[in-house]
Amino acid sequence: MRIGSAPDSWGVWFPDDPQQVPWQRFLDEVAHAGYEWIELGPYGYLPTDPARLHDEVGRRGLKVSAGTVFTSLHRGPAVWDATWEHVSQVAELTRATGARHLVVIPSFWRDDKTAEIIEPAELTAEQWSHLTTGMERLGREVRDHYGLEIVVHPHADTHIDTEPNVERFLDGTDPDLVSLCLDTGHYAYCGGDSVRLIRTYGERLGYLHLKQVDPDILADVVKNGVPFGPAVARGVMCEPPGGVPALEPVLAEAQKLGVDLFAIVEQDMYPCPPDQPLPIAVRTRRFLRSCGA
Q: This protein's superkingdom (predicted)?
């Protein structure tokens, strides 16, 4: 299991935002915290010139595990061209870093900054069909054109969120084309059990995001229907080991699979004070070592 972190753990959600730390500081601090692997984060946050990115990452002793894309494939064939243009841009940079994975996040049904509802929270049967066939096509095209594996990330305030929806998505997609990025925090946020998911769908697990939820804040978020963005601002995603799920059994269950896995720490903290992420990252890395990771 290869442990890393991501710009998300430094409060980075967007390519450019005045509330985020500069990318140079993120790279310096993630290396200082003891991580070897990073994700690219939102495209355009880190340098997009492959040579410069390679130099900046390499001279800090870091390596890239994955890039990230957002998709809205449930909207059908009409969005394919725009989707592929975006995916190709990120996939090309990801491949240039030597990474093998592309984390695919479904589009939000409400805006993660304004909390405005964009579309219905539930998909129709036709939209589910568009989503599953579209992801299979994406997996095939990304593999054939870039040699990368897509890992689909269930996420709060998207259509792949709860246990039933995650299972429906996995049951409806080809294992040879679509793998899962299990984010333990998002899955707990949406009521799912990460250990049970790994036991049931272990052969689909291609990637891990390690994250915890504060159960008290989550209870209030659920009770009052708080959108994900404001919930994060309240601190719903918390520093381990203070939340749920317990990461020790999740890591133990994943290690039983006997496969090579990335486990990337992602503590959603947008927005956060610039001096907050580094001490948390150092403590989190120490905690994960105590778990044998």
A: Bacteria
- Residue 153: its pLDDT value, please? 98
Backbone angles phi, psi at 181, to 5 degrees: -100, 105
Q: Which domain holds residue 32?
A: 2-290
Residue 267 neighbours by CB under 8 Å, 6+ apart: 8, 9, 185, 211, 212, 237, 238, 239, 280, 284
* Cα distances (angstroms) measured from residue 76 to each of 84, 142, 153: 13, 18, 19
How far apart CA 217 and CA 254 sit, in angstroms, is 27
State the CATH number of the domain containing residue 246.
Answer: 3.20.20.150
Q: In the structure encoding, which two tokens stand for residue 190, read together?
A: 């949406």
* Cα–Cα distance, 2 to 41 (Å, whole number): 18
Closest CA to 47 of 13, 22, 28: 22
Cis amide bond preceding 241, omega within 30: yes
Number of domains in the chain: 1
